[in-house]
Specification:
alpha/beta; binds heptadecanoic acid
């Protein structure tokens, strides 16, 4: 089978070696400009422009047609979208799947609502590529992706949540916490694919150490980590060093957030995708332990 991997541009991936690949761009829109989140986008220019722009800004998810174009020519597609709880990208991809399979007899499209974004999507893509290279069947790969998805997580650290709040992705009350100079919000993608705040910290050093602590609480035990930053490679390197300090063999890669994640995570923000032990089990365990303690 001729496989293709398709993501939306929130995955922060421009290309994948060794397989047919396409990234379907979201769009960042202000009253003056429109940025298409493809490989030509100048992220530094966009972030600098948004930093001084005071008007309205927002984003638009890809159309059904855009996904159809990305699927074109493939016999079997694995398609990953950002969380359906914050974007219509998943919906577009689902409809495109129905149309594509109907128009192209024998073709198969597996659409995954990642309930996340950025570097957690990258982990899923890397896993898919491994499975394709191992020669697994479409069904086997689909099943394995869903299993692996339970064993990956996403943490974020943000200095500002203005764009998230102005576009209705978090409440203004929550966003205010991040508005104070020097305060960084650390949170995670919840099981429902929404932003869940875990803590707020003053100072970068603390937020890095706490991010690692939260990763461990969520089940990180030294597996893969993918870090995407918004024009802040220094913080990504510091996070990498903190992790390597405790887990010298950890497989860590650093990347740059593309347009969509840069718009919402804003200047200085970071996203950490990581492998973990089954979080649901550890939550369950935690409840049991709490119960025992309360007896
Ligand atoms: O459809 C659209 O216009 C796109 C809307 C995207 C909204 C949220 C994107 C968040 C990007 C911010 C921190 C990580 C949040 C993780 C939550 C699952 C990055």
């Amino acid at each position: 089978m001729k496989y293709k991997i398709v993501v939306d541009s929130s995955a922060n991936i421009n290309n994948v070696e060794g397989v047919d690949f396409a990234s379907v761009p979201l769009t960042i829109i202000t009253d003056e400009k429109e940025y298409v989140d493809n490989s030509n986008l100048d992220i530094n220019e966009m972030v600098a422009y948004l930093g001084q722009y005071e008007g309205k800004s927002g984003t638009a998810c890809p159309s059904v047609d855009a996904f159809l174009q990305a699927f074109d020519g493939a016999e079997a597609v694995f398609c990953f979208t950002l969380t359906s709880n914050l974007s219509g990208a998943y919906n577009s991809a689902r409809i495109a799947k129905e149309d594509y399979e109907e128009e192209n007899e024998g073709s198969k499209v597996f659409v995954v609502d990642t309930l996340s974004t950025g570097p957690e999507m990258r982990l899923l893509v890397e896993k898919t590529l491994d499975l394709i290279n191992e020669g697994s069947s479409f069904e086997e790969i689909s099943e394995a992706i869903l299993e692996y998805k339970e064993k990956t997580g996403l943490l974020f650290g943000l200095e500002s949540m203005n764009n998230l709040a102005n576009n209705g992705r978090v409440s203004h009350i929550v966003a205010k916490l991040a508005g104070v100079l020097g305060i960084r919000i650390v949170g995670r993608a919840s099981d429902e694919g929404t932003l869940e705040l875990l803590d707020k910290y003053r100072g970068e050093k603390k937020s890095i150490l706490k991010a690692l602590e939260h990763m461990k609480e969520l089940g990180y035990v030294g597996g893969k980590v993918r870090i995407d930053h918004v024009c802040n490679p220094e913080i990504a390197i510091k996070i990498e060093n903190a992790i390597k300090n405790e887990y010298p063999d950890a497989d860590i890669l650093i990347g740059q957030a593309r347009g969509l994640c840069s718009f919402y995570a804003e200047q200085g923000g970071f996203l950490i995708g990581f492998e973990k032990t089954g979080e649901k089990i550890s939550n369950k365990l935690k409840k049991v332990v709490d119960k025992i303690k309360s007896i």
